[in-house]
Amino acid sequence: MSARKSAPFRADHVGSLLRPPALLTARAAHAEGRIGDDELRDAEDDAIRDAVAMQESVGLQAATDGEFRRSSWHMDFLYQLDGVSSSKDSSVEVAFRNASGNLTFASMSLVIDQRIGLSTTIFGDAFTTLASITTSAVPKLTIPSPSMLHYRLGGAPVHEGSPYSDPDQFWADLAAAYREEISRLYDLGVRYLQLDDTSLAYLNDPAQRESMAARGEDADHMHERYVDTINEALSGRPDDLRVTTHMCRGNYRSSWAAEGGYDHVAEKVFGGLAVDGFFCEYDDARSGDFSPLRYLPRGDQQVVLGLVTTKSGELEDPDTLKRRIDEASEVVPLEQLCLSPQCGFSSTVEGNTLSYEQEVAKLELIVSVAEDVWGS
Fold this sequence. Notes:
Blueprint: H1 21-31, H2 37-57, E1 62-63, H3 75-78, E2 82-98, E3 101-117, H4 124-133, E4 138-139, E5 141-144, H5 147-153, H6 167-187, E6 192-196, H7 199-202, H8 206-214, H9 222-234, E7 242-247, H10 266-272, E8 277-281, E9 302-308, H11 318-328, E10 337-341, H12 356-374
Parallel strand pairs: 1-4, 5-6, 6-7, 7-8, 8-9, 9-10
Antiparallel strand pairs: 2-3
């Protein structure tokens, strides 16, 4: 078996990387007004060049910009959709937990104050810069999936004061805006696009469904609406545009927000989502077993096994990773499997609790194990 020539690749990664100290210093200086926009962009460009060089040097076939221009993996995108604004009067708090205890991530609430649309190509300039820097690797762009807008709204799109009186119109507008965004990104040269979607993983957690139901939503079937909307957004995409989705249970400062396997959403997601690959979180027991993958049709769709954790710096044993790949291959043929970290290393600007050297070692490990399992 040989290495894959199209995305997702046998050794891949989710996208975000630890922000280097020089970039964090520059961002702080910019926030305080001590440097301007151009100086911040120069600092970002320098950091991205180093990040791309690192990814290519360890042997990855795809490279991202580390999401270095963002504070958050999803909010920076969602705020740029027409009709979406932030509410300074309220915030959304997401409860996270880890082995040491609990913590909270808070951001300004999203408000839909007019119909959803797209005026500017979101992250277009970021991708153009990334594409100009990569040499041996395919430039990969990550954006939040359409369902993340609904999930982060914290309530139904139809309410008093909403521009929508019909929920179907909301979903139609959302899909149309994403379809336009994807078309524009393709015109800029994007050939590897990832739709990050924590909501599809969160909905496997009964506590998350209970919270959604309390807001008046059909929590038991919401994943079906999400999949249908994503498929509508992807309808008509060019054959050479490779699209994946990443489904984790939250990633903030080495903590998580949800638990449970993929069982609740598996049939609709793995059996019906029209993407080329599924990045799945499988780094510990809270992620469940591989049995939900049985719904994946036989063919070219890939499951990228997130067996390497980004939540700690401890390096996994390569033989253990190979045994887990063997276990997964009892459910999905080996030729439909790939390997990656379970999530990004820095979904928000704060990053997870590991060092740059540990981050690089984990990426090197993934490349090495993939070569042993699938060949170079």
